[in-house]
Amino acid sequence: MKNKGAKIAVILTLLVFVFVAWIVVLNQKNDPVPEKAPTGPPSIEGQPLLGESNAPVTIVEFGDFKCPACKAWGDTVFPKLVDEYITSGDVNFAYVNVPFHGQESILAALAAESVYQQDPNVYWDFHKTLFSSQPETAKHDELWVTTEKLLELTSTMPSISPEKLTQDLEQEQTMPQVETDTTLYKKHGVGVTPTIIIGDTKISDPFDYAEIQKIIKEELSAPNE
């Protein structure tokens, strides 16, 4: 009888374990894709901004100019946002530097901040040109972000002084702006690039354009506070 009771206890234990495991899996499947940032929307004060400053919805990209995924996002998702929402005035877009890829990332961020300070109107041209200069993934680890390369990329931008840009890079004059971005991405728990936050909602898959559209529509239909 004791053996029979022990067997029953083992069976019941196994059944409880299976039931708990099933509940855990079920809960994981039902988790929503986006998550509300507990820190609220990222501050865009002093950040490059594309679109109307008073647009009802703000999208922030936390990115790295050396990040292949950021380049892919900029080539595929970003143009759709511009055509569908930014041009219409419904959305504006800010970019925050996240220099995860070492010294080259920092140099690229310093250059971008220098260009923005010298002429905000050409920042987005430089932004696009710098990402377009990123080598193919197989050669991604090769040195390509250099002062010479950055000067070359701005050589067709008359409003950008090569002397000023060189000085900013050599003396790291725009490091305070890069450090502001570092504080910002750490505050919002950014661990990968690109990270996209719409309002105060962090998108778990930045390439899921349908989810991005859904969040934008929710933000647009939300009552004004």
From TrEMBL:
<keyword id="KW-0472">Membrane</keyword>
<dbReference type="GO" id="GO:0016491">
    <property type="term" value="F:oxidoreductase activity"/>
</dbReference>
<feature type="transmembrane region" description="Helical">
    <location>
        <begin position="6"/>
        <end position="26"/>
    </location>
</feature>
<dbReference type="InterPro" id="IPR012336">
    <property type="entry name" value="Thioredoxin-like_fold"/>
</dbReference>
<keyword id="KW-0676">Redox-active center</keyword>
<keyword id="KW-1133">Transmembrane helix</keyword>
<dbReference type="Pfam" id="PF13462">
    <property type="entry name" value="Thioredoxin_4"/>
</dbReference>
<protein>
    <submittedName>
        <fullName>Protein-disulfide isomerase</fullName>
    </submittedName>
</protein>
<keyword id="KW-0413">Isomerase</keyword>
<keyword id="KW-0812">Transmembrane</keyword>
<dbReference type="InterPro" id="IPR013766">
    <property type="entry name" value="Thioredoxin_domain"/>
</dbReference>
<keyword id="KW-0732">Signal</keyword>
<feature type="domain" description="Thioredoxin">
    <location>
        <begin position="27"/>
        <end position="221"/>
    </location>
</feature>
<dbReference type="GO" id="GO:0016853">
    <property type="term" value="F:isomerase activity"/>
</dbReference>
<dbReference type="InterPro" id="IPR036249">
    <property type="entry name" value="Thioredoxin-like_sf"/>
</dbReference>
<comment type="similarity">
    <text>Belongs to the thioredoxin family. DsbA subfamily.</text>
</comment>
<keyword id="KW-0560">Oxidoreductase</keyword>
<keyword id="KW-1015">Disulfide bond</keyword>
